[in-house]
Design brief:
Layout (H helix, E strand, L loop, with lengths): L5 E2 L5 E2 L4 H21 L12 E4 L1 H10 L2 H11 L4 E4 L1 H11 L8 H9 L6 E2 L18 H9 L4 E3 L3 H4 L10 E2 L1 H8 L2 H4 L2
Length: about 190
Amino acid sequence: MGAQDSIGDGGEVVTQGGGAGRRLRDRRAARGEAGAAQEAGAPRVTGKSPPRVVLDTNVVLSALLFGGGPAARVRAGWQSGRFAPLASTATAQELVRVLGYPKFRLSAEEREELLADFMPWVEVVQIPDSPPAAPACRDPFDLPFLHLALAGRARAIVTGDRDLLVLARTRGLCPVLGVDAFCRKFLRADRAQR
């Protein structure tokens, strides 16, 4: 996040001036084209399938737009094949919609570039017409993420959303983790050596 950005009460990114487009251009210029090509490399191939993980929209936004701290570790994790992010039609559409918010000040080209930094690593899950029974949720807009986790047999849901975090110990649902807890559990440095 930029110095003027914060995480809102619901885990959303709150941008106050400057816009993400400027930060994206600055980061792109700082890393140069060689860095961009290296970041866009194919996922690591190993004999073992990586854990399947649902990242909520705000976690993906933080990793793509602001890229510092734990968000940078999440991005490096999906790009190195340490875990496989899952997406459904509904969650991908939400990401595209949110990237278009005026507060981020992203051009169509910048939005496409950000999606290209995420979508090649995504495992798409088809949600059945009758989605799996999800636990009761306070926010109906979170249901697509719960359906995705259940249909995709996710090992974790990663979120900053309180409405999802309260489901952390729900029977029949994978663990619901904040970003820091996810990094500790799935992205520890010693796990990379195994």
